[in-house]
Amino acid sequence: MANVLVFPCFYMLLNPPPLAIGEDEDHPDPEFWYFILVAAILNIGQGSFQLSHLAIVNSISYDQVRRDTLLNYRNACTYAAGIIVPGISFFMFTNVDDDLDQFAYIGNVCLFIGFCSSMFFLLVINEPELVKSSKKVYDKYFTIAHDEVDE
Exposed, middle or buried by CB within 10 Å (0-12, 13-18, 19+), for 9? Predict the structure, then answer.
């Protein structure tokens, strides 16, 4: 569902139709509402990605402390991306003259950062070990809680 919303909206933001650009400077309403509406739909699609990403944490660990730690890492990376990408964009927009090159460089830098973070996750975060250890904690907790109920 998220891809159905994100991909077309992203394309529509970067390639607005003539109606959205508006040729009459006295009436900028079509331009304003087009970009507000497309950006709002894009945010709904992005939210769909975020929800599915958050669900991964619950399947990795039963331990609440570990879940909190993983969510803190995830949130920190999300906030860092929210600062780094606009910073890179600002640098490219002020230092690169060609519009197409600006977006190509921004896209390549973001792909590189995304590749590095994905490789870090694949190589460093040992999901099967996390699941195994968290099941041990869950089983231990469940046994203790079950014994208390039987008494």
Answer: buried
- Burial readout 25-58 (b: 16 or more C-beta within 10 A, e: otherwise): eeeeebbeebeeebeeebeebeebeeeeeeeebe
> pTM of the entire structure?
0.51
Q: Tell me how far apart the alpha carbons of residues 132 and 18 are, in angstroms, rounded to a whole number.
A: 56
* pLDDT one-digit tens code per residue, 10-33: 888 878 887 777 666 666 666 778
For residue range 38-70, list pLDDT tens digits in order. Answer: 889 988 888 887 777 677 766 666 677 877 877
What amino acid is encoded at 109 in this protein? V
The continuous run of DSSP H or E covering 82 comes out as helix 64-95
Count CA within 13 A, CB hemisphere, residue 92. 19
Q: How far apart, in whole angstroms, are the C-alpha atoms of residue 90 and residue 102?
A: 10
